[in-house]
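Translate sequence into structure tokens.
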Amino acid sequence: MSEKEIMTLADENIMNTYKRFPIVLVKGSGARVWDVNGKEYLDFVAGIAVCSLGHSHPQVIAAVKKQVENLTHVSNLYYTEPQAHLAKLLVDNSFADKVFFCNSGAEANEAAIKMARKYAHENMGLDKFELITMKDSFHGRTMATITATGQEKFQYGFTPLLAGFTYAPFNDLQALEAAISRNTCGIMLEPIQGEGGVNIPDDNYLASVREICDRHGILLIIDEVQTGMGRTGKLFAYEHSGIKPDIMTLAKALGNGLPIGAMLATDKIAKAFVPGNHASTFGGNPLAAVAADATIKTMLQEGVLDNCRKMGDYFLLQLKKLQQKHNNIIKEVRGKGLMLAAKLDIEGGDIVNECLKRGLLINSTGGKTLRFVPPLIITTQDVDWAIRVLDEVMEGK
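Result follows.
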């Protein structure tokens, strides 16, 4: 089928929940994808921080091919080897003692909200049910997670929202402490706000939030759906702060493109869940589990995290140089690892579209922020090419 025929077929039959770009992607390899017409693109979106090992990584492909020939899916009424190995791998490389598997970030956060309330009801009292989340946060699109999301634009049209959530400004410890009430059972936040515009807190912020939680006897839930799996240069972003959360959520890059999410917790908190409390039909599916297992092992064994730190520093430096040249357009650049952003004085949509025409995929979040979340395997040549395209586009503004 032609590009136009495919887009028409999709528009006629798929619900209008996405504002799609007018290209049809059919193939990916490393940091590049190709459309149905054979045009090549450098992909600095990576499925929105999903394909951290790049597209069609050989280790992931090999694991999935082997597994699909043996067992694709069985119910969680039974044990499977891939799920058991993946759970141990996550536990061995994090603060956690136990893992719950699901399919997405929203589901992982939904599970975390349920676990926090159940633990609080059983250990703190029935009046402890409220979670404090941050303004400009993003935690998903289920009813509970859009309520947890501190952005009205995601909540519009879905009221009444769930009770038991309140919001505090991100990176404001005084306001956060003032928001704690007799009903508070926990604080839920992203180490770096992704959808909110790659907002990075002060260096001592997470450690101070941990101290506040300990002092008030409440839980700390870290949403690492976007920041986790190496995106900031460590396997999990909380590691930069030297603290340990009580609950952590993962998804996106966990399966390098296969849908899988996870909620991790300490043994003390995990005991709140017993059979019948929560479940997921496809959670920890053997196919997704082997993809995630291969992804984590590749990240840890093949220098991916080191490359993320090096390329992140290099990309940030080049963005700052671009800012100096186009200071009428770029107000600020910020980021950690390969989670970077350029705050603009103009709307970012036109720049995204012009980059697309030139073969560079980037995205805009919050209207005036360009977000860069490329595969963690990119090279200096990739960064240089992206900067040249951005420079060319901004020259015309």
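Note: The longest helix spans residues 304-325.
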